[in-house]
Amino acid sequence: MRAALVGVDFGKGDFAASLEELSLLAKSAGATPVTTVTGRRSSPDAALFVGSGKADEIAESIADLELELVIFNHALSPAQQRNLERRLDVRVIDRTSLILDIFAQRAQSHEGKVQVELAQLQHLATRLIRGWTHLERQKGGIGLRGPGETQLETDRRLLGDRVKALRVRLEKLQKQRATQRRARGRTNVFSVSLVGYTNAGKSTLFNTLTKARVYAADQLFATLDTTSRRIFLGEAGSVVISDTVGFIRELPHQLVAAFRATLEETIHADLLLHVVDAASPARMEQIEQVNAVLKEIGADHIPQVLVWNKIDAAGLEPALERDEYDKIRRVFISAQTGEGVNLLRQAVAEFATSSPAAPPESVDKTGPDGLHG
Question: What is the mean pLDDT of residues 339-352?
Answer without folding.
Answer: 95
